[in-house]
Structures are given as C-alpha cells and as structure tokens.
C-alpha cells in the first residue's frame, strides 16, 4: 500500500462535532449574498423530483436501510458473514435471492420475518415497533426490476455521438462524461437510481468554485450517462486529470487484437474520444466518483483547499485574528454540544466575497484554560485576558454557488482527515468508517439539513456574573456573543441560501442525504453477479477465473454464491479484466484506488492518506491443477 505523505497528527485536536447532525447542535452551513446566486426560481420538489409511482419512495428505502445498517449489517456483510447470510447491504442481491427480500411481500421476506418479536433478530436488541413498520412498508412498496443492461462498448458509442453532435471542437477538452451504467446493470431500482443522480449533482456542485449551480446533462433516454464541462464547475482540467490519473481505477483502452469488425469499431471510437477530449479518463463511473471524490484526499485536491488552514484562510480572505480584534465575528458558546463531552464555541466570519465562513472551537478537557465560561475571549493569543485554548475544530465555508465545503483541523491549523473516535463518533457512519467522522462524505450527510440552531449560554452567564469580568472584558464579550436574535438571523440567512441551492438540484433538505446512500451502495457487499458486471464479462468467464489463483482463494466465496467486499474486488479487478478481456488494456491508478477500509481506518486516529488499494498487473494466473 502506497502512502501519501501529508502533514498532520493527533496533536491537540478534538473534532468540533458539527459533522454529526443532532437536534441539539448547530450544524454549520454556508450561504452567500442573494445577488450572487444565479437567477433561477427554486425547483419545486413536489413537481420536479417525483419518485416514480411503481417504486418505494427513496426516502423510505433510505430510512429502512439505515435501520438495517445500524442494527444488522455488522453481522451480515461480506466482511462478517453470520448465519450464512452476508448481503444485508445489497438490496439487489437480496431481491435476486427470492428469499431475503420478496418484492411487495414482507411476509415472505426473511429480512422482515426474522425480526423480533416474530423472529429473534437482531440479537443486540429488538427494534422499535416503528422501525419494524418502516422495514415492512419499504418491502411492501418494492417492485421487481426489469434490467436492460448497457455495455461499456455501448456507453462509448453514446458518448461519441453526443460529443460530435453537441460539443464544439474548441470545447471538447473541457468535457467529461459520467456513467451510471453499472448500478443499472446490477438491477438497481429506479428510486435508488434517481437518488444516485441527485447524489452526483450534489457532489459535483460541492466541488465547484463556479457561482452558478450546474446540472449534469443526460445524453441518453435512460439518464445513465451525463455530460459535464469542467470549466462550468470551476475545476481546472489539469487538476481533474491529476486526481483521476492518481486515483481512478477503471481507465481502460479498447484495442482490436483479433481482427474483429465490432471490436475494431469500438477501438476506433475509443481512440477518437481520447484524441478529441485529450484524456484517457473521458468517461468516469459516477458511482465511483460520488464515493471517492468525497473522501478526504481526492476531495481536498479537487476543491483546491490548500496545504493547511492558513492557506485556506488566505485564499478566502478570512483573517480570524483581525476579525476578532475588530468585533467582526459572531459567536455562540454552550456547555453541551450533543457530540463532544466538553463545551464548545461556533463562530461566523465573512469571506472576502461576502460568503460565510464558520469555524468551531472544541476542547479535549474542561480545565480552566478550556472552560469557555471562565475564558470566553480566546482563542489564545487573540486576547490578552480570558482567552481559552482550544484543541481543534471544523471549518465550513460557503462556495459561490451556495453549497458547502469542509475542512477539519487541529489547533495549529494542520489538516485532519477524520475525527478521533476516542473523542467523537458518528453512530450512523458506514460500517467501514468504524464510527469515525470523515471529512467530506460524513459532513455532507450530517449537514444535509443545514444549520441546527443552538442557543448561546455565554452571554447570559456573563451578565449574571458581571463582577467576574472587567469592564473591558465585558464589552468585548458582549460584542462577540451577540443577542440571540442577531446570531439566529445570521444562521437563518445562511440556511436559506443553502436550502435554495439544494432545491435547485432537486434535493429536499428534509430527506436523507443522497450522497450517504450512494456511498453505501458503492461500498456494499458484492455478489457474483455484481462482480461479473463490474468486470464486464460473462458468467462463464468469471467461473473460469474462479478456477485459478489468486481468484480461487481470494474470491472463494463467489464460488458458493457468497459475497466479497469492495476492497477484495479492487485488489484484483485490474488483473482480472486484463486476463478475461482481450479487447481492453487496463491502466492502473498511479497512486491507487482511494478506498476507505477497516484496515486503513484503524491505522490512524486522524489521517486516511494510507487508504489506498494498489493493483499492479501481475503475471498471468496459473491454471488450477
């Protein structure tokens, strides 16, 4: 495993905690002045974003899967198979089984009938009646999916047709295509597909430095392939290419080695696209992009966040010390954050373009220097007296299009990829996160509902204990910790702009975050059918691979209709495609597939720069004897 060398250690850090949504904590969001937003009427989710009638509503499915993920997946996934059942995180495979999920029939679905009190699951404790009811209602609303597969060769044909018909030659180098054909091919229902489309739009705009929201353009009737112009989202071509070259694991070149006319045409189309766009990465899997571009290292590079907090602040025109000295910041301080055990301060600044910049101050202990009621005027050394010393925090700043960007730092401003679970946890995190809050994807989920207001307690405390402060300290304190109505108005303004941006993308802030759902889908346990579609080969070819090493050993569960993890697939997928598909040459990622795995999450409390899967192409597999 190659390691990306980046600064940062646990040091003096406590995750600020805003990355976990809770009714009791202010979850920070970003807003920009109304005149900056593109002049568009917000879309009405009731008319623009309806879920097809034949599918269970996606928010109901998300709720049901969240319950199962929390209560059941730890014992029934590819990494931990109990009771000979390891696919609880794979809806498509459970439906295909005809046992675990029977579309429209909860009473014949083991996922429902095994639940207590009728059954004996989960052993950790009976689900609440309303949770059981949610699962039953979700299954009752499911319908069988009719799969119309789209091969990667067909994707290339559709992309070339669109490029030549709709993109001027001078602009073709800015265009990249994103595909959802793999989720379609494995039988994902339309509700989940539509959620994935919204997730892609959210991620794309959450990486954008453009002032206008960008809606990807579907180029096929089934809305499986999307066209995006990088200059419209403010991502320089060289930055995008650098990240894709380093981390994208699915780049392939089509070649014609057997004088086959059909393969010759595909190879010609591939070469034409590579030349016109100027990149081998002209098609990116959207499911991979959602799940990987939201992980810390690719996320920071695509957003161009800078090397540390100082670099980001300079880029945004935020001078925290100067703002505090001039009383140009708004604060709320409180004892119970709902995430950390210690007191906490959140603080609002303005960027040089008028957009909001929030920062949180969190504390590892509650000694005198970290008590914000005794010392409310920090952080040290910004004030000569009554200055608290914090340990770390979260920065959330508003992008020009109204979406939010995130960064976790320690007290010295060093980048952190995740919060140490010894201090703060995300109870509903994807299982491979080991309860950690991860910058990017976790924050998009937790801040999906915008800012959650928390009333300031410092101002009232100081006013009730006037004798404890000098007149100068009291004046400063009252300036930084304003009246409740002032602070709330600023937060509400930020929320209004964020919500407007989400709604223009067809996302209802009140529903579960589509990015979190798509992340879980990509990282689900993979069945034999999933692996076959991932590789783009027939079942017979996959069976042949499974007779040989290393697949016979490392993918052995696929031989008995079991499941493998995304990590197990990623380790061998390049080799498998090279061996099974004579018409393609695979290009391995320069650094490696950036994939959150239990191994890398366990390796460090705060960094994820070793979350890499390197899959060089080894010699041909040796046939089984």
Summarize this, please?
With 625 residues, this protein is an alpha+beta fold. The protein has 24 helices and 16 strands. Helix 6 packs across helix 10.
What does this structure look like?
With 625 residues, the protein is of the alpha+beta class. It folds into 4 domains: 34-40 and 306-515, no CATH class; 56-141, no CATH class; 148-188 and 208-292, no CATH class; 529-625, no CATH class. Helices cover 37% and strands 11% of the residues. The chain is built from 24 helices and 16 strands. A 6-stranded antiparallel sheet has the order 8-9-10-11-12-13, with helices on one face. The chain has a 4-stranded mixed sheet with strand order 4-5-3-7. A two-stranded antiparallel ribbon has the order 1-2. Helix 2 (58-71) crosses helix 5.
Q: What key phrases describe this protein's structure?
A:
4-stranded mixed β-sheet, disordered C terminus, 625 residues, 6-stranded antiparallel β-sheet
How do the helices and strands line up, and which of them pair or pack?
Blueprint: H1 45-48, H2 58-71, E1 76-77, E2 80-81, H3 91-97, H4 110-113, H5 129-141, H6 152-166, E3 175-179, H7 181-185, H8 190-206, E4 217-218, E5 225-229, H9 237-247, E6 251-254, H10 261-277, E7 283-285, H11 286-292, H12 296-303, H13 309-316, H14 320-325, E8 330-334, E9 344-350, E10 356-362, E11 392-398, E12 404-410, E13 415-416, H15 441-446, H16 458-464, H17 471-480, H18 484-504, H19 514-522, H20 528-535, H21 539-545, H22 551-554, H23 566-580, E14 584-587, E15 593-594, H24 598-603, E16 612-613
Parallel strand pairs: 3-7
Antiparallel strand pairs: 1-2, 3-5, 4-5, 6-14, 8-9, 9-10, 10-11, 11-12, 12-13, 15-16
Helix pairs in contact: 2-5, 6-10, 8-11, 8-19, 11-19
